[in-house]
Structures are given as structure tokens and as C-alpha cells.
Amino acid sequence: MPELRRDPLTGRWVAIATERRKRPNDFRVERMAADPVEQCPFCPGHEDMTPPEIFALRPEGSVPNGPGWNLRVVPNRFPALRVEGALDRQGHGLFDRMNGIGAHEVIIETPEHAADLASMDEHVIVQVLAAWRERMLDLERDQRLRYVIVFKNQGGTAGATLDHPHSQLIALPIVPDIARREIDGARKHYADHERCIFCDIIRQEIAEAQRVIAEDQNLVALAPWASRLPFETWFLPRHHGAQFEEAPRSEYESLARMLKGTVARMNKALASPPFNLIVHTAPFAEEVGPFYHWHVELMPKLSRVAGFEWGTGFYINPTSPEEAAQVLRAAAP
Amino acid sequence: MPELRRDPLTGRWVAIATERRKRPNDFRVERMAADPVEQCPFCPGHEDMTPPEIFALRPEGSVPNGPGWNLRVVPNRFPALRVEGALDRQGHGLFDRMNGIGAHEVIIETPEHAADLASMDEHVIVQVLAAWRERMLDLERDQRLRYVIVFKNQGGTAGATLDHPHSQLIALPIVPDIARREIDGARKHYADHERCIFCDIIRQEIAEAQRVIAEDQNLVALAPWASRLPFETWFLPRHHGAQFEEAPRSEYESLARMLKGTVARMNKALASPPFNLIVHTAPFAEEVGPFYHWHVELMPKLSRVAGFEWGTGFYINPTSPEEAAQVLRAAAP
Fold first, then answer.
1. Which residues in chain A show pLDDT less than 50?
2. Domain that holds residue B310
């Protein structure tokens, strides 16, 4: 019997339709041709193919916008938003608009073209997380901005246009839809119970141990109760904290280790699937500290999300989170 | 300068990022290999490849589950939900669940394997709309069910697994997310203004004539102000009505003509893109008559929706709805 499950945070229902279940090796991973290294704008020696860098990790003596770097952050060449200008908020009859003020940056995570999270050293992943933090803290100073999203698309079918390991950051003058709904849901739970709903979820999940993929003293990785997609995985800090960018170094170290381990497990169990990784942090300058809880979502791209699903907000997931967690636990790299 | 726009119904913001704009012929339409007719379970003579029919349009004397039909409705062979059983609602700590009670049906729209909405006769499309209505009215009698979604995926990259023209219907014991948000938004507008927000949008759009693709005395087709995707198109009845399944025949005739015309325009301007079509109607047994307004959404699949976009609810659309409407108006078939 298929089961309907409700996400306690957002109220979203999903169908866990085990009759439609595929075994892990039934998922067809779609691949696209690899980019040639010679034309990669993110490879060392090609620094003139990107806009000038905003931030970089470089050994002493190395020259900005030249080779020798360990990590670079550059503006997106085709930005969805622009840093310059005023918001110029306007009504237009029933409608509202404002200028697309914001930032759209690319974090080039490593000079190595063919690396991925499973092959990168943990300390390199920690550097990436710390670079996200640096850029978030810098952008928070801009009074026009309200929210920052960091995300990583790996693989063409997950939306990546380049193979070289990179993540992206978009800072917005509004709080986007899903962040707003998470905040509203978490605020309501706090008003009702005086507790953070994420802390409650973590406590229940660790006690049940059905959907936990990995845990250590700082973090837990789990397949959420109302998973929208097969093998959807959330990483949550065990100690309450609303902002990713304020997390202690020890949590970045745990997150780096757990991201590397989980991607390695997915590579083994699911034939190196394309994926999307999204950091959910608190909005700037909004009092959500007691009830919001930062987390990272990892979504392997194993099935096509048809227009139906994002057109209705109703997801049909052929793999239960209990099975997903079991498969990933068993796939130790 | 990119622009942020807010959808007045749901409050969702999108970025219209014209710097990232592609011209219509820059969109790459992905295609998949066609299914062989000999193995198509929806072709005449293959009726034993589907579960027994629930509904059919057949000439007198033709035998159920045999050939000779004009349209068939059958249960989905791999249903996301089951008709039999009780809901058995249960809490599980913080979480909620219920049995996946509902219906999942397939409407086989025509015996012709290679037809599409642009090539089908208008009266055949009217038959399809009338079949949707019949099934909706029948399922509304089931007290366990709250909502019905009709949708159509055309083309493999839009989520279709078979080429033969078909649509699907899913009846749910809950009101899905996006329907709930549309209803909440429309209810608020009605409480504030004593007017239907959709009627207000239609009035403004017709007066401005910037985003209208087609109109007649019954219906208007438009590119919505806060379009999430390039060439997103909505079809709205000009006369207020909450339920698709209660619409008069004349509106089905207009909708059939306008769907056929719009798909033909998209085929011409955008090289026959895959698409998703979704019917938004009022939930069963909920008093939304004065403020909800049925409509149909058509989303050609021209760009990859990356996890970022459905993970944040924030869409970056490279084509303005004004340009989309202009291109489609100019592409008269």
C-alpha cells in the first residue's frame, strides 16, 4: 500500500509509492559528455576566461587572477542578479517588481578539473565551506540583501554547465519561497512548543535510527521522513544554530567528512549520480535564532521530476527513506 | 538590469534575467527515441496490455476492452495511489502519515499513436476535456478524496514514458501544496477586496495586452507576469468559475481551440518542445466558489530546472513573459 507522509516543517505531503519502487541499480543515471580541459574556464592558467576574482586562497607571493591558487571566487559571467543599483520597488497594478539587485558568484573549489566531493581531501572541502562562509559574511553587510543561497549542481542533468568542481552563491533582496515556508513552519512549532522543530526531528530520528545514514558528535545525515526524491539526504548540526556562516570550525570538519562519505556511498550504491546540494541558512537581519536551524540538502538526480510534481508541489517517491538510508549505510566506501 | 517579479496569487518571487536571455531558437530541445508502435500498450488491438477500462467512448456495438474505441480511461498499471482501503490516519511522533488512498488513471486520448494536440481535431480535444470532466465528477463522489489533478506530460524530457497521446489523473485524500497556496492567496485577496484575484488579473492583462497570447469571448491565454519558465502559458476562463468540471461546453470548445493553437505556435516557434499541462481546479467539498478560478497551465520544457530552483522555490527565467507572448502571437500556425 502506498503511503502519504507529511513533512512536519512545511506541511507538504508526499506519496511513498513502494509499488513503483525501483531497486538502486534500476535507476538510470543519465550522463553527458565531459568538457574538454583545454577549454575549461575554471582550470589554472585560464584565469582570464573569468571575471576578476572576488576572493581567493593563494600561497604567499601568488598573484591575483594568475595561476597558483587553491580556490577562487569570481562573479558569474551570466549573472541572474546585479550588484550595482537601487532596488526601485514598484507596483504595477496588481503586480510587484523590483530591480534584480543581488550577487551571483561562482566558487571554483579546486584547481583539479576531475575532482569530486568523494575524491577531494577533507581539508579541501573544509576550505570550500569556509569560502562559502566568507562570502556570506561579506554579503550580509549589504543592507539591500535579505538572503543568501549556496548551491552546487554536479552533472549536466543536475543543471551543471561545466564539469570542473564549482559551487554557486546567489544573494537576494527577498527571502525565497521555500526558505520563507521553512521559517514560518519553524516559527509556528516554536510558538506552540517553545522548541526548535529541527532539534525535535533530530532527537526522534536518532532515537528511531531508521532513517539515519551517518552521525558523529557534531552532525547527523538522514533521509527525511517525507523525502520528495529517492535518496534525498539532509545534514543537520546536532547543536542548535540558525546560521551556517556562524557555525564552529568543528561542524565544518564534520560536514566535510560526512559530505565526502555520503557522496562516496552514493557513487558506490547509485553509480555516481548527478546531484544538487543546497545550503539552507537563516535570512539576514531577521530574528529567527531560537527556532531556525541551518542544514544542507543533497538530492541525487535519479528520476525525472515531471512538471506535474513541481507544478503541484506533490511528489511521488518510489523509494522509502528507510530503504534509502539502509542502502547508503550498507554502501560503506 | 534583471528584474524581480512577485506572483500576486502565491507571493512567489522570480527573477526575469534578460541578460541570460536566449532567443527562441537558442533553446535546445532534447528528444528521446520514439516508442515502436508494435509494443505500444495504448494502441488499438493492445487493449489486453492495460488494466480493464473504467470509461470509454465507443461507437454502438463496440465491445469494452476491445478495439474500435475513440478514447479510453484505464487505471495506471503502476499506480502512485490505490482505490481500495481506509485512510488510517496516524501520527508517528512528530510525523503524520495515512494510507495512499486515491486514484491514478490514464486517459488514452485517441487511437492515433502519432497525434499531438496541434494535429488532433478540435472535436477530439473537446472529447478529451469532457472525459477529464466525467472522471472528476465520478471521483468527487468518493468521500475519502479531496482533490483531483489532471496533467499531461508530452515528450520524454517532460516525464512521459510513452509517446502515444495520453493524459493522467490523480485523485488525492489531501489538497496538494501548490493548490493550497493558490487557494490561500485567492482567499486573502477576496477577504481584502471582495473580488476574485484571477478575474482582476484577467482584467489587467487584457487592458495591458502585453502578455496576452490569444483570447476569445470565453477564454484568455497569457504569459503570466511572474512566469517561472520561458514560455509558461496560462489559460483562464473570462467568466468566473471555480471548477473545471462544471465549466460549460462552450468553454471546453474554446479551450480545445486555444490549446491546439498554442501548441501549434510553440511547435513552430520553439521546434515542438516537450511540455507539461496541468489543470488547476477547486478542491472537492471546500467552499472556494467566490474566489477560486479554474485554469490550465502549459509549461514547455526548454531549460533544465536545476535542483537550485525547486530546492529554493526561486526561479530564474531568461525570457520575459512580454517577449514570450510576442513570439507566440507572431508564430501563427
1. none
2. 40-79+97-330
